[in-house]
Design a protein that fits this description.
By secondary structure, this protein is an alpha/beta fold. Helix content is 39%, strand content 19%. A hairpin with a 2-residue loop joins strand 5 and strand 6.
C-alpha cells in the first residue's frame, strides 16, 4: 500500500476548511460573538479561509490569561526560558517549507523570499533566547558612601500588533524578545494575512510555552486592535505598521499610560554618488525596492543619483526593471508576486495618475497586470521632483522614483526632505563623504555600499514619522523591561534631623 503525503499547499487548504480560531489560555477557541471574517489569496482573490473575528470580549479574555500567567513566567529562570525558546526555533526550522508555502499563499510574497522567512524567525528566537539569562542584568554605580546598582524586570503583559507584509518573521521579531525578557503576550495579527500567526501559536504551544504566556486573537484593528491598545492589564504595545495607525495607537494607549514601540513607515532614499561602484549600487537599488513586492518598510523607494552618472544609471535601471519576472508567488522563478489585497492594488495604481498629473515620466510599468489577482507591473518614475506625491508618500509597492542631484548638499537636502526617517542607503567610495553624509541623514538606520543587511544586536528603528523606539539586541529589552535602581548605604550616612526635642519652635509674629 502506498501512502501519499499531501503537498504543503494541499495541507494548507485542508487546514483552512475550518475557520482559524483564537488561542487563549492554552486553548483554541472561537470568537465569543461567533463571528468570522474572510481572507483571500492575493494571486486570484479567491476565498482562502475564514478566521474568528475578535472583539473586546476576546481581548479581555486573552489579557486576563496573560495577566494570570505573568507571575510564573516572570519567575521562571532565564535558563529555562532559553531552553523553551530554542525548542520554538527548532520546530520553526522543522516546518520551514510549510511556513513558506503558507506565507506565500496568504500574502502574495514570492516563495524565493519566503523560504528564508522561517529561517530568519528561528534565528530571532535563538538570538533572544541566548540573552534570556542576562536580561535582568544591570549596572553597578558606586559613589561616595553608597553602592547603587540597577536591575531589570519584565514590564508585564504586552500587546503585539503585527503587519501583513512578512508576518511570520516580524511576529518573531516582537514576540521572541518579549518572552525572553519574561513578559507574557497577546498577539493581534493583521486581518489580511492571519495564517502563519496561527502556525506560530501552534509551534509555541508544542514547544511547551505554558498556557496563557502567549495568546492569539484574530480580528480587525478597529475592534480587536483598539481593545488591545486600551486594555488596562496590557502594559505596553509593540506595533509594526503605517504611521497613521501608529498615531492612533499612541492616543488609545494614553489613558492607561502604556509604553509604545512604533515601527512605522518609510520613504527611504538610496543616494548614488558618481564615484560609487555603479554595478553594485544598481543591484542593491533594484533589490531593495522590487524584492518582497516593494511591500517592506525599509524599501529604497527614492533613488537620488548624481547628475553626471544619472542618465546611464537610469538606462541600466530601466532595462532591469522591465525584465523583472512577475507571476505566481509559488513559482520559484517569480521575482514579484501579487500585492496583498485589492485595496492595496488600488492605492499603488492611484500613484500612476498622480505621477502623470505632477509631470513625472513613467519610464517602465505604471499599469495593472491582467484582470485576475492583485498584480501590478514593476514601475519606474523618472523626471521627478522631491515635492511630488510620488517622492513624499509611502506607496508600499514595487514603485521607484528617481531624482537627480548635483552636490552633496543637494543630496542631503533631498534625502531629509520627507516626513519619514527610517532607513537610508549611501553609495560612495569616498570615506570622508560616507561618514559626513551618514551623520547628516535624518534616518535611524544607514547602510553604506550595501543593501539592508541586518545584524541582530544593532538598533532597528526610525526618526520622525517612522516611529518611536528601537528593536534589536539589548534595545528590545529596554522596551520590554523596567529598570530599577537599588541604593545601599555603606558609610553610616544619616539624614538631617528635624523636629528634635529641645530645638526652638517657630512662633507666630
Amino acid at each position: 500500500m502506498t501512502v501519499t503525503t499531501p503537498s504543503p499547499l494541499d495541507a494548507l487548504h485542508d487546514r483552512l476548511r475550518e475557520p482559524l480560531r483564537h488561542f487563549i489560555a492554552g486553548e483554541w477557541v472561537s470568537a465569543q460573538s461567533g463571528d468570522t471574517f474572510d481572507f483571500h489569496a492575493p494571486s486570484d482573490n479567491r476565498l482562502l479561509g475564514r478566521a474568528a473575528s475578535g472583539d473586546a470580549r476576546d481581548i479581555d479574555r486573552a489579557a486576563q490569561a496573560a495577566h494570570a500567567a505573568f507571575p510564573a513566567w516572570k519567575a521562571l529562570s532565564g535558563k529555562k526560558r532559553r531552553a523553551l525558546l530554542y525548542r520554538v526555533a527548532d520546530l520553526i526550522e522543522a516546518r520551514a517549507h510549510d511556513i513558506a508555502v503558507a506565507e506565500s499563499t496568504d500574502t502574495g510574497q514570492p516563495i524565493r523570499f519566503m523560504k528564508s522567512a522561517a529561517v530568519r524567525a528561528a534565528e530571532n528566537f535563538r538570538f533572544f533566547a541566548d540573552r534570556a539569562e542576562g536580561a535582568q542584568d544591570g549596572l553597578s554605580l558606586p559613589t561616595d558612601g553608597f553602592l547603587n546598582y540597577t536591575v531589570r524586570q519584565p514590564i508585564g503583559p504586552v500587546g503585539v500588533i503585527t503587519p501583513w507584509n512578512t508576518p511570520f518573521m516580524l511576529s518573531s521579531w516582537k514576540i521572541a524578545p518579549a518572552l525572553a525578557a519574561g513578559c507574557t503576550v497577546v498577539h493581534k495579527p493583521a486581518e489580511w494575512s492571519p495564517v502563519t500567526a496561527t502556525i506560530l501559536a501552534e509551534i509555541m504551544h508544542e514547544a511547551g510555552i505554558p498556557a496563557g504566556v502567549v495568546n492569539l486573537v484574530h480580528g480587525f484593528g478597529e475592534t480587536a486592535g483598539k481593545a488591545l491598545t486600551e486594555h488596562p492589564l496590557i502594559r505596553a504595545i509593540a506595533f509594526i505598521g503605517e504611521s497613521r495607525t501608529g498615531s492612533l495607537i499612541q492616543k488609545q494607549g494614553a489613558d492607561t499610560l502604556k509604553r509604545v514601540h512604533l515601527e512605522l513607515g518609510g520613504k527611504n532614499p538610496v543616494v548614488v554618488f558618481d564615484d560609487a561602484d555603479l554595478d553594485r549600487a544598481l543591484d542593491a537599488a533594484i533589490f531593495m525596492i522590487y524584492s518582497l513586492n516593494g511591500q517592506r518598510c525599509t524599501s529604497s523607494s527614492r533613488l537620488l543619483v548624481q547628475r553626471g552618472v544619472h542618465d546611464g544609471f537610469v538606462e541600466g535601471l530601466a532595462a532591469r526593471v522591465a525584465n523583472i519576472r512577475v507571476g505566481d508567488p509559488l513559482d520559484p522563478a517569480t521575482e514579484v508576486g501579487p500585492l496583498i489585497h485589492p485595496a492595496q492594488l488600488a492605492k499603488v495604481c492611484s500613484y500612476f495618475d498622480a505621477a502623470r498629473a505632477d509631470g513625472a515620466t513613467i519610464r517602465v510599468g505604471g499599469e495593472r497586470l491582467g484582470d485576475t489577482g492583485n498584480y501590478v507591473r514593476p514601475t519606474l518614475f523618472t523626471d521627478a521632483r522631491n515635492d511630488m506625491r510620488i517622492a513624499q508618500e509611502e506607496i508600499f509597492g514595487p514603485v521607484l522614483t528617481v531624482i537627480p542631484f548635483d552636490t552633496d548638499g543637494d543630496a542631503l537636502r533631498l534625502a531629509n526632505d520627507v516626513p519619514y526617517g527610517l532607513a537610508a542607503y549611501l553609495w560612495t567610495n569616498d570615506l570622508t563623504r560616507a561618514h559626513t553624509f551618514a551623520h547628516g541623514l535624518d534616518s535611524g538606520m544607514i547602510w553604506v555600499n550595501s543593501e539592508n543587511v541586518r545584524h541582530l544586536p544593532t538598533p532597528f528603528g526610525g526618526m520622525k514619522a517612522s516611529g518611536i523606539g528601537r528593536d534589536g539586541g539589548d534595545y528590545s529589552f529596554d522596551f520590554y523591561m523596567e529598570t530599577k535602581n537599588v541604593a545601599i548605604n555603606l558609610s553610616g550616612h544619616r539624614a538631617q534631623q528635624l523636629g528634635m526635642p529641645g530645638t526652638p519652635q517657630n512662633k507666630e509674629n
